[in-house]
Amino acid sequence: MRPLRYFINVTVAMFCVAGFAASICSGALADEKEAQQSKLYTPQPEHEILKRFEGEWRFEKFLVAADGSTSGKLGAGKITAELLGGFFVVSKWSGNVYDTDYAAVQTLGYDVDKKAYSGLWIDNTMSYQWQLHGSLEVDSKELVITASGPGPSGGIRQFRERYQFKSADSITIVGETLQDKKWVKFITTQLTRKEKAAKETNKMMHASGTFEVELTPQDDKTGGLPRGRMLIKKKFHGDLDAASEGQMLALMTSVKDSAGYVAIERVSGTLQGRKGSFALQHNGTMARGAQRLIITVVPDSGTDELTGLTGEMAIRIADGKHYYEFDYSLDQAGGDQAQEELLRLEKEFTQAIVKNDAPAIGRFVADDWVIIDPDGGVIDRTRFLDVIKSGALTHSMMESEDLRVRIYGDTATVTGLTTAKGKFMGQEFTTQERSTDVFVKRNGRWQCVLTQLTRFTKK
Questions:
Q1: Could you tell me the pLDDT band of residue 224, with boundaries at 50, 70 and 90?
Q2: φ, ψ for residue 152 (rounded to 5)?
Q3: What is the model's pLDDT at position 25?
Q4: Is residue 28 part of a domain?
Q5: Residue 133 domain-assigned?
Q6: Which of 33, 69, 101, 212 is deepest in the core (most CB within 10 A)?
Q7: For the whole prediction, is pTM greater than 0.85?
Q8: Checking DSSP bridges between strand 100-111 and strand 88-97, what pairing results, if any?
Q9: Are residues 310 and 369 in the same domain?
Q10: Structural domain total, the chain
Q11: Does 336 map to a domain?
Q12: What percentage of residues in the chain have a pLDDT greater than 90?
């Protein structure tokens, strides 16, 4: 038999080994825990892509047709995206979409435990909170975000967005929905960094396509050189999807192949996804067969989403078919500045009303301004200001919300929901009305020419 000391030594050794192993395991667990804690408090490589969103952006939303082509612009606005500690990006959207004021907030981050991107989307169109889940596709370098929520025709549907990072200043978001087990594109959103958008103001763009023209001669019997007047009707296809109407005046000389014509036509439709209208001016001459034609956009004739349009169009005829090439630019910054100016005027007018400042109110409205009250009464500028000056009408509060601005060249409308409190002839009142202000730009200055008030009854 082995001596007792042997067993004691072995037992002691075993305990020592076990203690050493436990120490190692304990240290390993501590290291793992420390590493996990480090991941929680230190941005990981997966967080890097969130930096791509930080900053101020302009966005445009476009509807996509069944064949994949862009079928119309849904709206536009701005985004302010802020990075929180390198872990999350919070984006605030605002603008006009679906012909109404639009506001949304999106959060996006990376879950180190689930190894996936996640976030939340809420907006002012519904009470539903969209739970976002996503991943970064290695091959395409696209960030793919999926979510389920209410479909346009009811029920819960699957949606996803593919974020395509075109450059540091450009992101395209492709919106898709799951139909018959296939992802179908239905909307695209183009994001352009604000600094980049400002630099690209007046950047030349190009549109091309075909058109058909119908000329209807008019009976103009005049003396002198032979001349003719014609009505013009056109249908444009391609990048410019529009129709036009106008008039042409032509004159033929006694010399063969020498003539001239001028024309004006109003074009209404969609130019590469932007809806609106504009006017084209033609000036054409032919000197013994040598042709010269200049077609330009009439300055400040653009309306709606084509406000600020400038450019020149060239046409050619080949094999009996008409083609156009249109080089143009859009002064979008001008439209933004006009909108900001109109909103500032509305704010100053509200402040002047609350202060009962008749001179300030008078600067806001034109000499021919009238206000139509909710009962259909018409009050002119002089009468309204006299009531303010007399103190018969005073306001203690006036606030407007849901303000919407529409600009049509030198004419604009501002609509809103206005709540007011005050006294009239000593009697207190509280009103809530839909207001429409019509502005006209005269000598470079916006002035209100008409105010229409409609009593608001909440249903």
A1: low
A2: -60, -25
A3: 44
A4: yes
A5: yes
A6: 101
A7: no
A8: antiparallel
A9: no
A10: 4
A11: no
A12: 44
